[in-house]
Amino acid sequence: MAAEVDDVQIGADLRARRQAAGLSLARAAELTGVSKAMLGQIERGESSPTLATLWKIARGFRLPLTCLIAGGAAPAAENAPVFSKEIAVATVFAFDPWLAQETFEVTLQPGQTHLSDAHMSGTWEDVVLLDGALEMQLDGQWQAVAQHRGLRFRGDRPHGYRSGPEGSTFLSTMHYPSSEQAELKQAEPKQAEPKQAGDKDD
């Protein structure tokens, strides 16, 4: 059975990537639109971030989402960690820096609606419905997605997902702009230097 994404690990990975980038919490808050207090709580494992918050952080840091929910690793499909706060998201393919894309399996509960903010500029998203019924909100209009068929749309605009009475499971592939590939090729975060008692984080 797939393991639940570990909030403590998410926080540790976020802290390591922020420090490797030389960013203070205050500067990270400016880039992401997530408050300094909330970022600090996430890094310390004291707050469980929503998917919307993680997308804001990913967009502000110019990171693919899997860098935050899967550590950027490519887990075996049967062992892929699942993020199941408001919706269930399992990593199918972690971010590939050469293809500049990542793929998730997303499950919505019956009648559930999930609204998403715009992702980083130039992002496109492919959705392929595997099971159930699904509608997508694009440019303010809802449209049905046929089962075993795909829909491609601009992910850098607000959009939404709405399942039918049986729920829905679909694949979501994020395609990031080729001009961002160099920025998205993330090396393993550097290990932070040991901190002395009383040292401030930023």
From TrEMBL:
Any one GO molecular function term: DNA-binding transcription factor activity
Bias (Basic and acidic residues): 182-202
SUPFAM superfamilies, alphabetically? lambda repressor-like DNA-binding domains, RmlC-like cupins
Question: Which UniProt key words apply to this protein?
Answer: DNA-binding, Transcription, Transcription regulation
Query: What are the boundaries of the region Disordered?
Result: 155-202
Leader sequence segment: none
Polar residues composition-biased segments: 169-181
User: Would you tell me the protein name for this molecule?
Assistant: HTH-type transcriptional regulator PuuR
Q: Which gene encodes it?
A: puuR_1
